[in-house]
Amino acid sequence: MEKKSVSRRNFIKKSTMGLAASALLPSILTGNRAFAATDKKKMFCYQCEQTMGGKGCTRIGVCGKTPDVAALQDFLIHTLKGISIAAVAARKVGISDSETNQFTCMAMFSTLTNVEFDPYRFEDLLQESVALRDKMIKRVKAAGGTISSDSDSLTLKLKPSLEGMIKQGKQYGLMSVPDIDPDLRSLQHMLLFGIKGMAAYTDHAAEHGQEDEGNYEFIHRGLAAIEDRSLDTNAYLGLVLECGEKNLRAMELLSLGNSTAYGDPVPTKVPLGVKKGKAILVSGHDLIDLEAVLKASAGKGIYVYTHGEMLPSHGYPKLKERFSHFYGHYGTAWQNQKKEFAKFPGAILMTSNCIQKPKMTYKKNLFTSGTVGMPGLTHLNKNNLGPLIERALELPGYPEDKKDMEILTGFGHKAVLGVADKIVAGVKDGSIGHFFLVGGCDGVKKSRNYYTEFVEKTPDNSIILTLACGKFKFFRHQLGDINGIPRLLDVGQCNDAHSAVQIAVALAKAFDTDVNGLPLSFIISWYEQKAVAILYSLLHLGIKDIHLGPTLPAFVTPNILNVLVKNYNLTPIGTAKGDLKKILG
After folding, report:
1. Residue 123 contacts residue 162 (beta carbons within 8 Å)
2. What is the DSSP annotation of 443-477?
3. How deeply is 2 buried, as exposed, middle or buried, from its count of CB atoms within 10 A (0-12, 13-18, 19+)?
4. CATH for 268-394, options being 3.40.50.2300, 3.40.630.30, 2.160.10.10, 3.40.50.2030
5. 266, 317 Cβ separation under 8 angstroms
6. I need a labelling partner for 287 at 20 to 30 A (CA). Which of 134, 308, 352, 473 fits?
């Protein structure tokens, strides 16, 4: 683990120095006019659900990603393919390098939607990527191994300037190979985006010391396969499903890391009100960074609140027991942060993906940590959160207590399976008629109100499992209970799809059937690449009749979609009323 943390500190330190000294900074913040020569070539990105027109972002990302940052991300991925080809060859001669394994995942994580927007940090990542690639190639040759590939990802040299790297990156966009079969390209991109999501979970788990060599091996083999022109559609489809299998393991390791550090989640009431005093808001996903904030702020008259996908952290007993100033939850999902952050009277830390370009009204109050970054923001290491604490003490905080409702979280698989006997009995006596997993990513489209309406229309004898930020469409709903079991069960963050699977598998075993034989329906909302990886995990498990929305991925061609429909009955959402009628018969 030390190699990884040192590597991350190094590139953070260097990029911060670059930002302070660079004369190009104003241009980067105002549209990259200093790179006008490169801007003549459009970007292309369609990795998220909100991609422009449902087809692809070509001038600027809907997320706010500039063409220059898009080029740097594409270029970084290309160099990671070079690392991966070398790593595949290395394993054939018994070499697996922890530094390379961990760096690959962390660097892939930086290319997810709404994670890293700082060009200078991509410059650092590119330099480290090429250095690790060359180091691995030398080790392979020294061990008597060979690397058989004609991909220039193994030999390319970086230009000496950031502008030069951006120009290089323009050559390696998603559509840079014009003569490829569209269905083959679709599967390659399905694999790439799934690996991105899996790499993010693997990176989170590795921070806890939870690692699996098999996952690193697959990530390298999968990235290398994208450069293999001999593979056909069946081979890539197999790799996509294997990505789902390996992603299950990545989520399991992250769940194990969180539970080992902070205890198994337990049902917990979380106040939505506030306490009089100074305040810090923690958003993103990283529980390790949340713990660091709690430690650094202890005894200073500061209350710590969660935002977005950090809500489930209140269910971890060791965090609640150790830190009395860990109070409640503020706000909703990532897409509302500009409005919600502007109203928060304290300092804010974004710990992982989901950041948006901040408004000037709160820019000085917002800090980043881990992989996430934005030009002009102060990036912190969890071992030095002084600027965050200082800013929280400078800001007014809340002048008085303000009460609001409480909501429940902490229904991980162990908590739910602890009342499995009641659940089984309820199904047998008819008091529980159906289970719905309604979860995934939230977003700005009005069509996402489907999920609110769906939950509202579910029958009173049904139980709704939910996870990720999609819950914020209905998290305040009071749905009552069945035999003492709340009808709305918050399973956790997006990675806690692992817990939802454990619940489904255990219930299937209790009823001597498979998951598809249960009165259980999956109503999934997706936005970015973690959700893509989770979908592959469900497909790997053979789960059918998944309702997916609000729109289907732009990177899936009609022919590939037909394969998924034929084999899994993957279905786009319709209307809440119509889908419920179809599901319940």
Report:
1. yes
2. -S-GGGHHHHHHHHHS-TTEEEEEESGGGGGTTT-
3. exposed
4. 3.40.50.2030
5. yes
6. 473
| Residue-range domain boundaries for the chain | 2-261, 268-394
Contact 307, 340 (CB under 8 A): yes
Alpha helices per DSSP H over 331-448: 337-343, 386-394, 413-417, 420-429
Structure tokens of 328? Answer: 């409640």
| Residue 109, both tokens | 């994580």
Task: State the Cα–Cα distance between residues 377 and 400, nearest whole angstrom.
Answer: 30
54 Cβ contact list (under 8 Å, min separation 6): 551, 554
Decide if 480 contacts 464 (C-beta within 8 A). Answer: no
Name the pTM for this structure.
0.93
Q: What is the pLDDT along the chain (585 residues), one digit of tens a residue?
A: 333 333 343 334 333 333 332 323 223 222 332 333 344 458 999 999 999 999 999 999 999 999 999 999 999 999 999 999 999 999 999 999 999 999 999 999 999 999 999 999 999 999 999 999 999 999 999 999 999 899 999 999 999 999 999 999 999 999 999 889 999 999 999 999 999 999 999 999 999 999 999 999 999 999 999 999 999 999 999 999 999 999 999 999 999 999 999 999 999 999 999 999 999 999 999 999 999 999 999 999 999 999 999 999 999 999 999 999 999 999 999 999 999 999 999 999 999 989 999 999 999 999 999 999 999 999 999 999 999 999 999 999 999 999 999 999 999 999 999 999 999 999 999 999 999 999 999 999 999 999 999 999 999 999 999 999 999 999 999 999 999 999 999 999 999 999 999 999 999 999 999 999 999 999 999 999 999 999 999 999 999 999 999 999 999 999 999 999 999 999 999 999 999 999 998
Closest by Cα among 527, 523, 354, 542 to 439: 523
The domain defined by 2-261 carries CATH number 3.20.20.300: no
Amino acid identity of 58? Answer: T
